[in-house]
Specification:
Among the domains are: 66 residues, RNA polymerase II/Efflux pump adaptor protein, barrel-sandwich hybrid domain (OB fold (Dihydrolipoamide Acetyltransferase, E2P)); 200 residues, Helix Hairpins. 47% of the residues lie in helices and 18% in strands. It is built from 9 helices and 14 strands. Helix 2 packs antiparallel against helix 4 and helix 2 crosses helix 7.
Length: 455
């Protein structure tokens, strides 16, 4: 029997075995490579494409009501801090300011009168005391006269029996004694009247001093009240001009010219595009290795993978998105279906990269966090020491209001009089004016506390 197997036929199984061996080797090498890549790279990263750009949406709202007469910024306009955005009709505010200025000026002059009256009442006391002293001196003189005439009558009375003193002469002495006593009684009445006049003048001075004691013209409660009204009117006038509280871009303008707006009504939105962050919604199973401070790389759909953003984990949410929803899930119902929850993780972005490649609020992002270092904290445990956002555009209004009050008070104090600007600070004036009352309250509280301990 002859062998009909050709060399080609015998080589085919060998080639298949060789090819299968190569494929198996490639699969094994691929598995080893993927395992090494997973152990070295993928195992140290958590990623999600459920991430979106977020930012501060600053609502531009009016602090006073009024009619819109000018709109100085529109959608997509870039604005700077302090730039006017909307202007309201200021006619009513200007009228109220003029009335407040006049009221403060009148109050300052009235308080000046109170202080001047105290000086007049003090002079009246001096005058009444001088009259009292003169009346008392007159009483002393008349008392001496009465004593002298009485001695004369007493000396002449025994001499009438012997005829050494005539009846006419004795009657004259008696008449002098009666006249001296009458004059003394009248002088004593004048002394009593003068004493009453002195007491009345002192009471008037005390009543006047209750209006001015422990204070100055600038710190007087009446002046402070009128000054507060002037500040209120000044701020109301200045608030008819709405400034931009921060740098940014205008979005969602809803205000229209001629519109009557109420205080607190939203007019437009300002977005600070240089202070954006990303909220990455990680699955609850991915949170075990996420820590504050871990580095992250991000890519935006608008730029693709060619542009890479770098950020840092700033904080992990304290609850899932469903927990803070308007209608949270009621998982105790019978038709419950478990859904993997997601927790927002805030990623801070590099401001320089934002400047080079601007983002917009709401854009989709892909986030990859390097979780190799798990030494950080999962939740913040220290209070914030700096403001999240802060503006100073409204601080100048208070300074301008104080300057306006100072100008009106100074103009009505009289020639040569000066007022310390610090005396017109409301809190300082209240503290100074109520210092005696505060001390009394402190003493009363201490006494009550001591009594409570005794009982």
């Amino acid at each position: 029997m002859s062998d009909n197997t050709t060399p080609a036929a015998s080589a085919a199984p060998a080639n298949r075995r060789k090819a299968l061996s190569l494929i198996a080797a490639a699969v094994v090498l691929g598995g080893i490579g993927y395992g090494a890549y997973w152990a070295l790279v993928l195992n140290h990263n958590e990623s999600t494409d459920n991430a979106y750009v977020q930012g501060n949406l600053v609502q531009i709202t009016s602090q006073v009501s009024g009619t819109v007469v000018a709109i100085r910024a529109d959608d997509n306009d870039a604005v700077k801090t302090g730039q006017p955005l909307v202007r309201l009709d200021a006619a009513d505010a200007q009228l109220a300011l003029a009335q407040a200025q006049a009221q403060l000026a009148q109050t300052v002059r009235e308080v000046r009168t109170l202080f001047a009256n105290n000086g007049t009442l003090g002079a009246q006391i001096s005058l009444r005391e001088a009259e009292l002293a003169r009346a008392q001196s007159e009483v002393q003189r008349l008392q001496s006269d009465v004593v002298r005439v009485q001695d004369d009558v007493n000396r002449r009375s025994p001499l009438m029996a012997s005829g050494a003193v005539g009846k006419e002469e004795f009657a004259h002495s008696t008449s002098q004694l009666s006249a001296a006593r009458s004059a003394l009684a009248s002088a004593q009445s004048s002394v009593a009247a003068a004493q009453q006049a002195v007491a009345a003048a002192k009471e008037q001075l005390a009543a006047g001093q209750t209006q001015t004691e422990g204070t100055s013209i600038a710190q007087h409660p009446g002046v402070q009240k009128a000054a507060g009204k002037l500040r209120e009117a000044w701020l109301a006038l200045k608030r008819t001009e709405l400034p931009a509280p921060a740098d940014g871009v205008i979005a969602k303008r809803s205000v229209q010219i001629g519109q009557r707006v109420a205080a607190g009504a939203p007019l437009m939105t300002l977005v600070a595009l240089d202070k954006l962050w990303v909220d990455a919604n990680f699955k609850e199973g991915q949170l075990k290795t996420l820590r504050i401070g871990q580095p992250a790389t991000l890519s935006a759909d608008v730029y693709g993978t060619q542009v890479v953003f770098h950020g840092t984990v700033q904080g992990l949410g304290t609850g899932t998105g469903a927990a803070f929803a308007l209608l949270p899930a009621q998982n105790a119902t019978g038709n419950w279906i478990k859904v993997v929850q997601r927790v927002p993780v805030r990623i801070a972005l590099d401001p320089k990269e934002l400047t080079a490649h601007p983002l917009r609020v709401g854009l989709s992002m892909t986030v990859k966090v390097d979780v190799a270092d798990t030494s950080g904290k999962m939740l913040a445990d220290l209070p914030r020491t700096t403001a999240v956002a802060e503006t100073t555009v409204f601080d100048q209004l208070a300074v301008e209001a104080d300057n306006e009050v100072l100008k009106v008070v100074q103009a009505n104090l009289g020639a040569g009089a000066k007022v310390d600007a610090r005396q017109l600070t409301p809190l300082n004036a209240v503290a100074v004016a109520n210092k005696p009352a505060a001390a009394r309250l402190a003493r009363t509280a201490a006494a009550s506390s001591a009594a409570a301990k005794v009982h």
